[in-house]
Design a protein that fits this description.
single chain, alpha/beta, Rossmann fold, six-stranded parallel beta sheet
Length: 295
């Protein structure tokens, strides 16, 4: 089905706001129940957080993950190393964590210092403990549909939001803006697994607004502030905004112009308060799933 320009067809209806908190609350309730059952068997899901250096962004993310873990009952072990740690020593620390049966999932805060080979460190992590899909083996699991590691948490958060709000992927036309290994490619594969027909847009896409207007589901993961305007939208469209940017006013904003989405789409996720809120919950969900596999 072809859609005319949003400016020509007009934007009048008010879209539903798909708030992450509602999804998080449902996930938290599910996880608490799982953790209670596991604790009765003497298994206590434990997340390891590995941080190198004192970057404020890393420390803020670490605090957020710890707060989320506390809410659901996941234990946390922090592995904090100085920025000048050698690559060899860090590889040894990762191996120690791999061999620690009390730690079920591991989050490595990245990017690592430039003196350390990121590829070596992330692929040294055991895939069964790779709860954020950073190892090559976890990527293989996503693309092959096998149970190796876990998908990136942000990609899975997108899919969970669609599921929670009853958005059908089977038979839908889905467009993903962005082709990164963190979001674009894995979420496209997960949509295909859900029997959607998927188009991936990128910097070389010709007439991107026209391609996006034909989407039932639009996932914006380009990392460009407010690039998705009303010309990308149609009134039956669900928009998942993955972008986290700083707007001209100094406030957080997404890849989507939220005012346009509110007026021109069927539903959309806000920024902040949307995908990012759900992402941290999947660190906990994957940790719990990894712990269950040890029983």
């Amino acid at each position: 089905m072809k859609f005319s320009q949003a400016s020509e067809k007009g934007c009048s209806s008010m879209a539903k706001v798909l708030k992450g908190k509602e999804v998080v609350d449902a996930l938290n309730e599910e996880l608490r129940g799982e953790i209670e059952k596991m604790s009765a068997k003497g298994v206590y899901p434990t997340l390891g957080i590995l941080r190198v250096g004192e970057k404020p962004d890393d420390m803020a993310y670490e605090r957020g993950a710890m707060k989320r873990a506390e809410k659901v009952g996941v234990a946390v072990k922090n592995y904090i190393f100085p920025e000048d740690i050698s690559e060899e020593e860090l590889l040894g620390k990762v191996e120690e964590i791999n061999n620690d049966s009390s730690v079920h999932g591991v989050l490595i805060l990245r990017p690592l210092p430039k003196t350390i080979n990121d590829e070596k460190i992330r692929n040294a992590l055991a895939p069964e403990k790779d709860i954020d899909g950073i190892t090559d083996k976890s990527s293989v699991g996503v693309y092959s549909g096998t149970d190796i590691g876990y998908p990136p948490c942000t990609a899975e958060a997108c899919i969970e939001i669609l599921k929670h709000f009853g958005v059908e992927t089977r038979g839908s036309n889905a467009v993903v803006i962005g082709r990164s290994l963190v979001i674009g490619k894995p979420v496209a594969m997960m949509l295909i697994k859900g029997n959607a027909t998927v188009t991936t847009c990128h910097t070389k896409t010709v007439d991107m607004p026209s391609v996006c207007r034909g989407a039932d589901i639009l996932i914006a993961a380009a990392g460009q502030k407010q690039m998705v305007t009303k010309d990308y939208m149609n009134p039956d469209q669900v928009i998942i905004d993955v972008g986290i940017n700083v707007g001209d006013d100094g406030k957080l904003c997404g890849d989507v112009v939220s005012e346009d989405a509110e007026a021109c789409a069927k539903a959309y996720t806000p920024v902040p308060g949307g995908v990012g809120t759900v992402t941290t919950s999947f660190l906990m969900k994957h940790t719990v799933e990894a712990a269950k596999k040890t029983i």
